[in-house]
Amino acid sequence: MTHSVTVRVPAKVNVQLAVGAPRPDGFHDLANVFLAVGLYDEVTVTPADELRVTCSGPDAAQVPLDATNLAARAAIALAGRHGIAPDVHLHIAKDIPVAGGMAGGSADGAAALLACDALWNTGSSRDELLAICAELGSDVPFSLIGGAALGTGRGEQLTPVEVGGAFHWVFAVADGGLSTPAVYGEFDRLTAGTRVPEPAASPVLLAALRAGNTAVLADSLSNDLQAAALSLRPSLAGTLAAGTTAGALAALVSGSGPTTAFLVADAESAHKVADALLTSGTCRNARTAVSPAPGATVV
Ligand code: C5P
Predict the structure, then answer these.
(1) Cβ–Cβ < 8 Å for 42, 4
(2) Tens digit of pLDDT at every position of the chain (299 positions)
(3) CATH fold label, 5-161
(4) Where are the domains of the chain?
(5) 282 within 8 A of 41, measured Cβ to Cβ
(6) Which among 64, 120, 66, 112 is positioned nearest to 91, based on CA atoms?
(7) Which residues line the pocket of ligand 1, CB cutoff 6 A?
(8) Of ligand 1's atoms, which has the minimum distance to the CA of residue 26?
(9) Residue 29 bears catalytic tag
(10) What is the pTM (predicted TM-score) of this model?
(11) How far apart are CA 176 and CA 100, in angstroms?
(12) Distance from residue 156's CA to the centre of ligand 1 (Å)
């Protein structure tokens, strides 16, 4: 019998993304408040003759299947630490928008890591897995833990944040992706010659999450990459406007975009806003989801 392990992993939205000046290593210090949302990828790992990645789902064609895929990199990194050959078939059942600012690639990295760890029975501690996640990318550790967390440093140093209730969202999926480095580069261009303040988490926003207060959260959402994403993709302004016109309490670009996120009052409002976004013609797809969601989990 061939043993296989499947891990389910959520997407994220950044409810606050405060970005500092570029560091000498090219990264930016962040105050990044991550919230995991209930849109999931599933990664299944099965022993194989050699490392292989496949992907299914409507947008599977946009997912790289070579060694740049974070799921492959996760398997290689974990195998390397334990002197194991990374001979596995990684299958990604993709439901998170690709290159959309929802950490879909990071999610697959965290899921593959957890799945390989279970398959190989390495006995790695949570902290060891989180350290590998941080090497794979700034958003990968959060995909492992889920829930909500404040990410500092380049976003990889996490402090869990309490969430006191459910929040309802609509996500408008744009045509094509946006490159994260390109959006950070545009942020640098737009802020050149200005003093970029030290990034700091908003106490009001953290309190809104703790209280489960949608109205206060709606007033305190912020994303310092939004201007850069809009500068590279001006049409996103029309998507944001269509969602707020349809009754969303707040609208913002998700992470580096181009997915846009709409906070709404309840599930009924979510369906109304999603329908309006779809008929507006300003996006390719609209998805509803509830937060918080658990991190990567073996199913
Ligand atoms: O960490 P990750 O590989 O996901 O980052 C992708 C790119 O995003 C980096 O190469 C960098 O250009 C940019 N980035 C940044 N500051 C961060 C996180 C990412 O400039 N804190």
Answers:
(1) no
(2) 469 999 999 999 999 999 999 999 999 999 999 999 999 999 999 999 999 999 999 999 999 999 999 999 999 999 999 999 999 999 999 999 998 999 999 999 999 999 999 999 999 999 999 999 999 999 999 999 999 999 999 999 999 999 999 999 999 999 988 999 999 999 999 999 999 999 999 999 999 999 999 999 999 999 999 999 999 999 999 999 999 999 999 999 999 999 999 999 999 999 999 999 999 999 999 999 999 999 999 99
(3) Ribosomal Protein S5; domain 2 (3.30.230)
(4) 5-161, 167-291
(5) no
(6) 112
(7) 26-28, 30, 137-139, 154-155, 180-181, 184
(8) 20
(9) no
(10) 0.97
(11) 8
(12) 11
> What's 184-220 look like in SS3?
HHHHHHHHCCCCCCCCCCCHHHHHHHHHCCHHHHHHH
Give residue 29 CA to ligand 1 midpoint distance, Å: 10
> Going by CA atoms, what residue is nearest to atom 7 of ligand 1?
181
Q: What CATH topology corresponds to 167-291?
A: Alpha-Beta Plaits (3.30.70)
Structure tokens at 187: 């942020």
Give CA–CA dist 290/37, Å, rounded.
6
